[in-house]
Amino acid sequence: MGSLHVEDLDNISKCTVENPLDPEEFRRQGHMMIDFLADYYRDIEKYPVRSQVEPGYLRKEIPDSAPYNPESIETILEDVHKQIIPGITHWQSPNYFAYFPSSGSVAGFLGEMLSTGFNVVGFNWMSSPAATELESIVMDWLGKMLKLPKSFLFSGNGGGVLQGTTCEAILCTLTAARDRMLNKIGRENICKLVVYGSDQTHCALQKAAQIAGIHPNNFRAVPTTKANDYGLSASALRSTILEDIEAGLVPLFLCATVGTTSSTAVDPIGPLCKVASDYSIWVHVDAAYAGSACICPEFRHFIDGVENADSFSLNAHKWFFTTLDCCCLWVKEPSALIKALSTNPEYLRNKATESHQVVDYKDWQIALSRRFRAMKLWLVLRSYGVANLRNFLRSHVKMAKNFEGFIALDKRFEIVVPRTFAMVCFRLLPPRSPLIIKTNGYQNGNGVYHKDESRANELNRRLLESINASGSAYMTHSMVGGVYMIRFAVGASLTEERHVILAWKVVQEHADAVLATF
Amino acid sequence: MGSLHVEDLDNISKCTVENPLDPEEFRRQGHMMIDFLADYYRDIEKYPVRSQVEPGYLRKEIPDSAPYNPESIETILEDVHKQIIPGITHWQSPNYFAYFPSSGSVAGFLGEMLSTGFNVVGFNWMSSPAATELESIVMDWLGKMLKLPKSFLFSGNGGGVLQGTTCEAILCTLTAARDRMLNKIGRENICKLVVYGSDQTHCALQKAAQIAGIHPNNFRAVPTTKANDYGLSASALRSTILEDIEAGLVPLFLCATVGTTSSTAVDPIGPLCKVASDYSIWVHVDAAYAGSACICPEFRHFIDGVENADSFSLNAHKWFFTTLDCCCLWVKEPSALIKALSTNPEYLRNKATESHQVVDYKDWQIALSRRFRAMKLWLVLRSYGVANLRNFLRSHVKMAKNFEGFIALDKRFEIVVPRTFAMVCFRLLPPRSPLIIKTNGYQNGNGVYHKDESRANELNRRLLESINASGSAYMTHSMVGGVYMIRFAVGASLTEERHVILAWKVVQEHADAVLATF
């Protein structure tokens, strides 16, 4: 470990260095890393799921400048064990039920290896034809599995593209919608454009609107209600739009969600598209989490009406086994994206582009450079096949259903919103008063546990922190309609029935402990 | 390979499926893939560098829907060989000299494996503390290696973040600059904001301006000249700014480049920052390619003056061995980024964030989700150490210098712009007239080869296509000052001296052939 001062004298290279991509060294270290990770997955249950470190832990363990001389992979892997793993929250743990899953798999990992191994920069067709062509093909494959209308596929007049995240997908489609509109009404009207979502829409929409220069006052988070299961109501949307038009504003873009982050609520795509079409609003359907489930016929109806939307996206890295990042976006009118996002510098000119026979994905996204993400989606689709993919998803849904069943049997708890996919939103109900607890202990009758919301919220905050601090399982929270609830999302690839049973026991034990001092 | 119709009946799962992340299956297939890739690197020279396929080749070889049943990894790898590799342009080939390098290495690959293996979604500190903390630490490490002023480091009051690409880095900083300005002058003035670059600035700036809602008329590509080696002149910038102010517009953002894509020109950072500061313009320094070289003391002067810029970025995936994607961005005022890019939904609330003791990188970038990219940068820095990293870069520069030397010895060619880093811009000069060629053949005197620009451009277009079609080496072109030139960028990790010598022979042979029919 050297300092950065002495070696400034070394501006003539002193030694012959090994090639940094030597094939045999790649083989040796690569095998070592595979074993390291296979062991990690085998032993993953021994780590606390949520990292238990305190802010700043790593600066105390790591030198404050880069080493001057090389260090061996053996040393580095030891440090990964000692310094990094304690600071990891184990998203791949079978006891991970937080946020949404970050869905790993052998096939996804191998696809990422191929993509990193070839390390091509697929900005246009020319730069590596296979990267572009495979992407177009697998996006059609997945589109067909979802029974998307042909207008979203290359085999129709639309097409699909792999983005990194939904944030990017929304920003790209919003920019396309914005420019299409401004080309009609004049650029100087940008401050009049209005973007719509519900109060349950992912923050990606707000962020995309901020970046695209939409006036912050023109972002509408239309309130939802328990009566609609926190879905966006078409009539509420229409009233909001009418008010905006009345105020001289220009409705632009609606993001409808299938499977909201807080509670997996589903906005009614069909009715919302109908309203939107009356005002020429671009509709993007964000099915980041729940879209994957729609490859199963029994879930497909949740995206009924998508044929009237302009764009549709889902995150294959959430619940479709590709590892982060892999957001699948389909659009009906690729030319709208291309008009908004293309640039054509001389150094990228080539015959294939000029022949107009190819797709240049650089014009479908924010960045110029892009990884060969189609590889991992292709490997996932082929390694598991449609049949197994459906089975994986169904097994997660079934496990969530079982967990829901456990809750129903323990009257201290309630399901806050109905379960739709593989996530259960529940909470512990507070006892009526400390006196009753002390004298009678817990009773399972509804009389004892009631809905004093602020006490309930505090109780569940404590319960969740108690569970997570134990390291035995990890869940996160959300709040809908003023109710703090615990989200239990099944979907980590290693999770089996027994982990769900264990998690429920953990919840019960911590409920006992928390109630005892509440 | 099934169709998508029959199996719609199968909405009850029929078979118990294997776990998609089974550790021993991971181990088995992982080792297989390491050997596949090690063999690929060993044999890479047998493939044509630029893919030779025609548009649409892959649709002919691949079924038009996803398989219903799983396929084995052995079958898939066979198809990678037969169907994918022919469509790959081999960016990792030692005979690859196109665009800029996409710099792979064993350490970068291993870092990517760890990142993909842990598969954490590091949107905030809480979601995986190690991901955030390691990123802050390695960004300080690399910042120190570059001798960036302390104001760009976390150990000062600034900080670094890993973005995917320079396009994202520019969009984020531009958005931050935009909102800082609009908060002063009012949102309704967005159409008055002006963005500056030169006619050599990467198209990332134009794209970022488009996305951020800058009026298309307010994008300035200030012309450069051969006299300034295609660097942006401070006085030209000032005149352009003054004209804009005169017209009632508001100067906002300057992107200065260290190592332009066309010719690795260097904009004079110091003088440009001085002009910019007179008008409170945010200066971003885009050192995507050449920034890496600045870890060598003999190259550091190219970023002198950076202390007066607002933000600085380089692509570690270009010439710093991390594999795609890894753009390092440092900013002096992280709060400007955070104000423009933050959102704080309930489902992400946590104690660490509320303690204000931690960095939440989601507020430093476009997307919410983010991969653990710091891992690969950490592995590269430790596996090679500062000493070897400098040596790698110097060896590329030396090879480019040798290539330049070969050109100087063959009077049929000329160097179009002076070489600064590891890229040589050259062209073949056309013979004076067909008659002279036919009767006298080629002569090496300057009298015979002259600069008829349009003929020269056509000649070099043919030469480049001839070289690339051969598959022996791959180079790309650019155009500066009306001159079409061939870019020879050394930097693929496998390239050795002998490949550069071979490439020069290839250039000479194809020049012979092309001149013979010109």
Automatic annotation (TrEMBL), chains A, B:
UniProt xrefs under CDD domains? DOPA_deC_like
Which keywords does UniProt give here? Decarboxylase, Lyase, Pyridoxal phosphate
Q: Which GO terms describe its cellular component?
A: cytoplasm
Q: Where are the transmembrane segments?
A: none
Which cofactor names does the annotation list? pyridoxal 5'-phosphate
Q: Which PROSITE patterns match?
A: DDC_GAD_HDC_YDC
Q: Name one GO biological process term.
A: amino acid metabolic process
Molecular function terms, GO-annotated: pyridoxal phosphate binding; tyrosine decarboxylase activity
Q: Which family does the entry's similarity section mention?
A: Belongs to the group II decarboxylase family.
Q: How is the subunit organization of this protein annotated in UniProt?
A: Homodimer.
Q: What is this protein called?
A: tyrosine decarboxylase
Organism, scientific name: Thalictrum flavum subsp. glaucum (Yellow meadow rue)
Q: What is the lineage of its organism?
A: Eukaryota, Viridiplantae, Streptophyta, Embryophyta, Tracheophyta
